[in-house]
């Protein structure tokens, strides 16, 4: 069984929902508090010296990190969670998978702990990152055309990202007011009964 080291509601929620959707058995190990010195950080650091979540310990003991890499691992086991190879939407799925982690994710890296990067202008960095993040979400919303999911009737792992990240800053109210397509997709994911337990555990519903 896979061990998933994470914190409810954090980035590990994306991987936890993916594993649940793919019906891949896993055990969740809560390392809340890992970002400060203490036993939880030591537990995570033994497996991932960078002390980041999610960190997966696979069945063979290998360590897997990075949500996009975990998504690709999930697709190896459950290919139907992406448009099929040869489908016109496959390239767009791949693009958005990398776009989310290459563009949106870094805004959290810097805005969540701005004092690490610019101790003399921490609040300015936080505000700039949030403004940039909003512009990214607006761009994405304008490029999502399908319903009820990002690629139409087929639920994919991109929809998992949107459902989880909609709960982070700038917050549900902002998404509801400014990104109707992202909001509708996230709502569709949250209505799936097989995900109710994991979504509730991560305070996504």
Tell me about the largest β-sheet. 4 strands, mixed
Helix and strand run: EHEHEEHHHHHHH
Rg (C-alpha, Å): 17 Å
- Runs in which pLDDT lies below 50 for 5 or more consecutive residues are none
- The N- to C-terminal Cα distance equals 26 Å
Structural class: alpha+beta
- What is the typical, i.e. mean, pLDDT? 96
Layout: helices, strands, pairs:
Layout: E1 2-6, H1 12-21, E2 26-30, H2 39-45, E3 55-57, E4 63-65, H3 67-77, H4 90-111, H5 122-143, H6 157-165, H7 172-178, H8 180-190, H9 196-201
Parallel strand pairs: 1-2
Antiparallel strand pairs: 1-3, 3-4
Helix pairs in contact: 1-3, 1-6, 4-5, 6-8
How do you describe this structure in short?
The chain has 205 residues and is of the alpha+beta class. Helix content is 51%, strand content 8%.
What does this structure look like?
- With 205 residues, the protein is α+β, with helices and mostly antiparallel strands.
- The protein contains 9 helices and 4 strands, in the order βαβαββααααααα.
- α1 (12-21) packs parallel to α3 (67-77).
- It starts with a strand and ends with a helix.
Structure characteristics:
205 residues, alpha+beta, 4 strands, 4-stranded mixed β-sheet, single chain
